[in-house]
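A.,

Following up on our hallway conversation. Structure tokens first:
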């Protein structure tokens, strides 16, 4: 599995992902092409990306979220193709992002809606602690010293 910066060639794959109703069920309304392009430009193609592409065997399978959340922490997350669900990809990506956060000496945060049980299970599996609800989202935090 490889986490990398987004490239122009990723647009169509990202559009397929973000326009999928199942993928977007707990996130937002499915994206059209224009919204996908805007999202990619604002979050993945800029100088300081907030999201990074994920490949498996040189095939785009989704993206991870990794950006500053507040002064002491980074938000992490993942959005993966349905073919990847239940196969351990989210856990592996969480491990990669935890290691990156530790190297940066940053706490990590995962946000999700209460219905996202898979995300909550992963947060708890890796020692993230439930901190409450902020702006309608459940917030889980992992101290970098954990």
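Then the amino acids I'd put at each of the 146 positions:
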């Amino acid at each position: 599995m490889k986490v990398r910066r987004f490239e122009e060639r990723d647009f169509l794959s990202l559009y397929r992902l973000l326009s999928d109703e199942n993928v977007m069920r707990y996130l937002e309304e499915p994206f059209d092409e224009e919204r996908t392009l805007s999202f990619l430009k604002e979050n993945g193609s800029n100088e300081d990306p907030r999201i990074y592409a994920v490949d498996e065997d040189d095939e785009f399978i989704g993206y991870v979220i990794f950006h500053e959340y507040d002064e002491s922490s980074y938000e992490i997350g993942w959005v993966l193709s349905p073919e990847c669900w239940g196969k351990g990809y989210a856990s592996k990506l969480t491990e990669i992002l935890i290691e990156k956060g530790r190297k940066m000496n940053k706490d990590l945060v995962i946000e999700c809606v209460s219905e996202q049980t898979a995300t909550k299970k992963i947060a708890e599996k890796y020692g993230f602690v439930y901190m409450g609800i902020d702006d309608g989202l459940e917030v889980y935090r992992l101290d970098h010293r954990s």
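The first helix runs from residue 11 to 18. Curious whether your intuition agrees with the design.

B.
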